[in-house]
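User: Quick one: structure for sequence A, then sequence B.

Assistant: Sequence A:
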Amino acid sequence: MENYSNQRNRTWKKWSFALLGTLLSSVLLATCSGITGENTISNGTITGPDYRRCVSPCCGGWFIEIEGETWRFLELPEGSGINLNVENLPMEVTLNWRVSDLQKEHACGSQVITVDAIKKR
């Protein structure tokens, strides 16, 4: 009878460690998913150009408000049909976007995104 009890305890410990490992992995994956540059579809407002001048990609481009945060993008995708040099701003848009690789590489002070698709609202 005592052997059965010890065997049951060892089996329980193995399952406990497996369950704990699975839970920790799930939490880590969920926490890190926002960092991977996954595409997001959002409504936003292009507010105007970034007139700052510098040699790095941390300056220039256009500012856009998305869900209360200010982001910056350097260009629109080809075929968007939007010419920001002649449009009236601010402009309401729906866009498909992701955190730019430039933001990750250069740690720019303003948040830089890549716009993959965009249309006026």
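Sequence B:
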Amino acid sequence: MPPDADLTARMDASLAAYWGSYGLAEGSLSRQLPGAHFVYTPIPLYLFNSVVLTGQDPAAIDATLGAAAACIAEKRVPVLWRLSPSAVSEAVRA
């Protein structure tokens, strides 16, 4: 059974909104990227630093991974990678 497009869009938005503001404190960085949302906090625990993938475009995902990886390497923090329902596609599985 194919996923309901409206429900998937609402789940994507909810996931990005919740984790996009989770643990934001002074010195945090919250950046909306094509098909993703990247959050860095000065708290060195993966729960507070995340990349939420919300798109299926392989080029956008690659760009997001590159941008996030650069910040992760610079800040030296662990990151939790979160996949929204729409991001789980053949492009992500590949």
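The longest helix spans residues 58-75. Strands lie at 29-33, 36-40, 50-53, 80-83.

User: Thanks, that's what I needed.
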